[in-house]
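User: Let's play a game. I give you a shape written as tokens, and you guess the letters that built it. Ready? Here's round one.
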């Protein structure tokens, strides 16, 4: 009799097990058949049933079914704003229940990559429509799906900037820095936003210091830091700092170019010229040095032109031709510098505009016309 009773209990247990898994099995079969609405109904039952609410399989298929509805041309109409969040929660639940070595956890990486792409595409669609808040919300979720990915954080910063919410944009750049993405571009964008917002000079200087520690050859960061030194009347300190840097790294062309810029600001044109020329000697493609050499020669030429223009008729008859000859000499000296800068950065508008003016002054009509066409195409 006891043996019969155990057999009855075993049968009853099997019936319970079958009943508690039927919703999961039905969801899986409907999913395979492409009947995602029916699969959704069944899986929703399974995750709340007391016998299957802690089943990794139930939660895995909950995520899979909802995720496949996002991409389905038929069932995507049933997808809500909350759907991607439900998918992520389901997959996170699988990891929580199984750990890293579980059967269903092993299948998650591919599914998470797909989810990241789906959410990012939604974010970009909102971004293109300039629906900044919705775009930022989706970028945030994409970042949660892939915490070490830089794309979602970068575009979230762009969206916040588009919204003119500079403080929020800065927080995204800080997140990028926090995951080790310490590029010059990130620091440059962050610092420009700090300067456009209410950040203090001390805060900006700290960011510049950190940026230079990560990007010691960044001309932009060096020049920005030096602006603050010069504005504070610390031009000598700025010069000393650069000279120490050059002593430690004597073949760094960027350092010479920046030192030349500091000297130019201090009206030490001879020293500036010397260091700009050293920069291009070390780096024949150093745009900043070539451009600044061109500007210096152009400015010298302009001084002679202005002097000649202010002369009365009698004085012009005596001095005008000589002043114009001096101006031409400096315009001729400026031309090759601007040409070299243009070669280094062919799309720089300022360089093309200055080169056009030089060609015009030198009566180089064909060259001026060529630059004029290039400028017209870049407008």
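Assistant: Ready! My guess for every position:
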């Amino acid at each position: 009799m006891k043996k019969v009773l155990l057999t009855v209990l075993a049968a009853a247990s099997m019936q319970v097990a079958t009943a508690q898994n039927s919703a999961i099995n039905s969801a899986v079969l409907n999913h395979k058949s492409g009947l995602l609405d029916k699969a959704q109904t069944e899986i929703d039952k399974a995750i709340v049933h007391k016998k299957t609410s802690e089943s990794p399989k139930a939660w895995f298929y909950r995520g899979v079914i909802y995720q496949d509805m996002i991409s389905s041309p038929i069932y995507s109409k049933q997808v809500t704003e909350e759907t991607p969040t439900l998918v992520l929660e389901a997959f996170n639940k699988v990891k929580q229940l199984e750990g890293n070595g579980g059967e269903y956890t092993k299948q998650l990486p591919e599914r998470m990559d797909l989810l990241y792409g789906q959410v990012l595409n939604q974010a970009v669609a909102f971004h293109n429509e300039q629906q900044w808040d919705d775009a930022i919300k989706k970028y945030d979720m994409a970042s949660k799906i892939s915490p070490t990915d830089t794309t979602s954080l970068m575009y979230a910063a762009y969206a916040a900037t588009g919204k003119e919410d500079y403080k929020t944009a800065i927080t995204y750049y800080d997140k990028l820095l926090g995951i080790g993405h310490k590029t010059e571009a990130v620091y440059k964008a962050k610092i420009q936003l700090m300067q456009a917002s209410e950040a203090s000079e001390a805060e900006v200087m700290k960011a510049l210091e950190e940026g230079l520690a990560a990007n010691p050859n960044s001309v932009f960061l060096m020049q920005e830091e030096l602006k603050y030194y010069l504005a504070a009347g610390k031009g000598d300190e700025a010069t000393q700092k650069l000279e120490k840097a050059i002593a430690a790294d004597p073949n760094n062309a960027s350092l010479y170019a920046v030192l030349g810029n500091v000297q130019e600001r201090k009206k030490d044109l001879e020293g500036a010229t010397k260091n700009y020329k050293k920069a291009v000697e070390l780096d024949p493609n150093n745009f900043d040095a070539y451009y600044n050499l061109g500007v210096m020669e152009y400015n010298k030429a302009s001084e002679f032109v202005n002097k000649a223009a202010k002369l009365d008729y009698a004085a012009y008859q005596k001095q005008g031709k000589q002043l114009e000859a001096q101006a031409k000499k400096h315009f001729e000296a400026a031309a090759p510098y601007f040409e070299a800068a243009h070669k280094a950065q062919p799309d720089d508008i300022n360089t093309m505009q200055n080169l056009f003016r030089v060609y015009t002054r030198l009566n180089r009509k064909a060259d001026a016309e060529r630059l004029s066409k290039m400028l017209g195409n870049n407008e």
